[in-house]
């Protein structure tokens, strides 16, 4: 039930057609964890707190910096140097004393994620890096929670709802159905390097808050199996529909991930010395008919253009086809340039304990340049 003060506070919600007291009570009982109290987290937290979400968790191990202030609207100049999570909680509590807030002054990791998330039903992803996005996705899938995701960069952003319950009792697609593999670190432009227009996270973060409200109360149609993309400069929006991927290592036909993994390794950020062969060494092995396994992790269209006649296992299929990769002989993995194959070598070593893998330095480009100049390339 609501106190007279709460009834006055939420009066405009009570008068909404199809919303009313029943929906407000659902908001009061809801438990939502917001990961990241920065650019996206600021509007998410402000609107969830104001809406009356009864139990909000805030996890962020960062402190306020001057460069945050053009877009992280929870903070002021006086907050510089202080904990984002703690300052955010204070301001939400001041704005709405009728909600409960838990503060986690740390960064989410595979070591603390299960414990922190256990008492929440919806997790809002307000992070800005791929390892944490995959971690949050996998956490939600493994624990049966909903992931309300957004990302922003420069003048554009995107929004979706992952692993949400469907009317038939099943769950909607998740982040890995949309993005099976992360981009190579060399291809990623961060907000620090590429910048972000200050108003953009206000738009996307507010929409994340609205998706949470829809999910909690059952009103409207959440963005399940849909990716909404917005360009601020052109003022254009685009909707892309996506479905379950049968090769998804979490929810596909042959799942291979049943716990949180090392996401820095998976995303190619944390590297270690790996075994390699160059194209001259590979040619000698092939000429001598050595007992090796050669695996091509490029896409089928790349293999059709030029091939070394290895076993084709596209990168996104590797987790579901691990049993095809030998452990009793030298396995040489190649791609176009050596980047994707290097990521796969690290992934297989980290997650499946392989010790017999070699990355082909320079990939098929090096083969064409040094061994077969007449090889057709793309």
User: What characteristic shape results from the CA principal axes?
Assistant: elongated
Counting DSSP E segments of at least 2 residues, the number of strands comes to 13
Mean pLDDT: 92
CATH architecture of the largest domain: 3-Layer(aba) Sandwich
The rounded distance between the terminal residues' Cα atoms is 66 Å
Largest sheet: 8 strands, mixed
How would you describe this structure to a colleague?
The chain is α/β, with parallel strands linked by helices and 378 residues long. The protein folds into 2 domains: 4-265, 3-Layer(aba) Sandwich (Rossmann fold), CATH 3.40.50; 272-370, Rhodanese-like domain (Oxidized Rhodanese, domain 1, 3-Layer(aba) Sandwich), CATH 3.40.250. The protein contains 15 helices and 13 strands. It has helices at 4-9, 11-14, 20-29, 41-51, 84-95, 113-117, 130-143, 175-178, 191-194, 200-217, 263-266, 279-287, 300-305, 339-352, 363-370; strands spanning 31-35, 55-59, 100-104, 122-125, 146-153, 156-162, 226-231, 236-241, 276-277, 292-296, 311-312, 330-334, 357-360. The strands form 2 sheets. It has an 8-stranded mixed β-sheet, with helices on both faces. A 5-stranded parallel β-sheet has the order 9-13-12-10-11. Helix 5 links the parallel strand 2 and strand 3 (100-104). The N and C termini lie far apart (66 Å).
């Amino acid at each position: 039930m609501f106190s007279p003060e709460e009834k006055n506070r939420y009066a405009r919600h009570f008068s909404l057609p199809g919303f009313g007291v029943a929906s407000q009570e659902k908001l009061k009982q809801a438990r939502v964890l917001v990961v990241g109290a920065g650019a996206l987290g600021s509007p998410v937290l402000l609107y969830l707190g104001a809406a009356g979400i009864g139990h909000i968790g805030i996890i962020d191990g960062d402190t306020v910096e001057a460069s945050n202030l053009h877009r992280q609207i929870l903070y002021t100049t006086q907050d510089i140097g202080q904990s984002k999570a703690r300052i955010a909680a204070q301001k939400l509590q001041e704005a709405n004393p009728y909600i409960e807030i838990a503060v986690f002054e740390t960064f989410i990791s595979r070591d603390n994620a299960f414990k922190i998330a256990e008492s929440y039903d919806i997790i809002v992803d307000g992070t800005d890096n791929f390892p944490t996005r995959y971690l949050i996705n996998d956490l939600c899938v493994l624990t049966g929670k909903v992931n309300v995701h957004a990302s922003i960069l420069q003048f554009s952003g995107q929004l979706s709802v992952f692993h949400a319950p469907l009317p038939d009792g099943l769950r909607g697609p998740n982040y890995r159905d949309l993005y099976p593999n992360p981009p190579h670190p060399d291809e990623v432009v961060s907000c620090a390097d590429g910048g972000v227009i200050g108003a953009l996270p206000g738009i996307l973060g507010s929409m994340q808050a609205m998706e949470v409200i829809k999910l909690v109360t059952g009103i409207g149609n959440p963005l399940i199996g849909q990716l909404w993309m917005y360009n601020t400069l052109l003022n254009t929006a685009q909707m892309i529909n996506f479905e379950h991927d049968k090769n998804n290592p979490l929810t596909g036909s042959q799942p291979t991930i049943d716990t949180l993994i090392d996401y820095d390794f998976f995303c190619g950020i944390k590297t270690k010395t790996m075994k390699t062969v160059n194209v001259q060494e590979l040619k000698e092995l092939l000429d001598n008919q050595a007992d090796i396994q050669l695996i091509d992790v490029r896409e089928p269209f790349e293999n059709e253009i030029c091939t070394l006649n290895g076993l084709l296992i596209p990168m996104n299929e590797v987790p579901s086809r691990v049993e095809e990769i030998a452990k009793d002989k030298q396995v040489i993995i190649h791609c176009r340039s050596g980047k994707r194959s290097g990521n796969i070598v690290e992934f297989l070593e980290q997650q499946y304990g392989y010790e017999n893998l070699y990355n082909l330095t320079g990939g098929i480009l090096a083969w064409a340049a040094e061994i077969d100049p007449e090889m057709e390339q793309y």
